[in-house]
């Protein structure tokens, strides 16, 4: 894994989200996202992952998540391969980890 990719626990990510300091990118597939997602998370599924569609905010942390923490690693690797310049945070445990720590989710598109 690249030095620019860091695994971060969901409690820390929740703090960033609550403070408006993070941009979340959900790389799960459409049916997973529609069934349940974190409010405000941008949808960019791994099957059609488009690095160019991932925002590169200078004032916020980029956090990629999936269901359990595996696919976000693949997405992070693709970002690094395409020359992504910023820090990439992977949420440990994905949305399952988020929910296990009391993180809220919502349904629908």
Fold and architecture overview:
The structure is a single chain. The protein has 109 residues and is an alpha/beta fold. The chain has one domain (5-100): Oxidized Rhodanese, domain 1 (3-Layer(aba) Sandwich), CATH 3.40.250.10. It contains 4 helices and 5 strands; from the N terminus they run βαβαββαβα. It has helices at residues 10-18, 30-35, 71-81, 94-100; strands spanning 5-8, 22-26, 42-43, 61-65, 88-91. A 5-stranded parallel sheet has the order 1-5-4-2-3. The mean pLDDT is 93.
Helicity level, as a percent range?
A: 25-40%
The tally of structural domains comes to: 1
The number of distinct helices, counting runs of at least 4 residues, comes to: 4
Uncertain stretches: none
CATH superfamily membership: Rhodanese-like domain
* CATH-defined architecture: 3-Layer(aba) Sandwich
What's the order of the H and E elements?
EHEHEEHEH
Which CATH top level class fits? Alpha Beta
* Proportion in β-strands: 15-25%
CATH topology call = Oxidized Rhodanese, domain 1
Q: What spatial order of strands do you see in the largest sheet?
A: 1-5-4-2-3
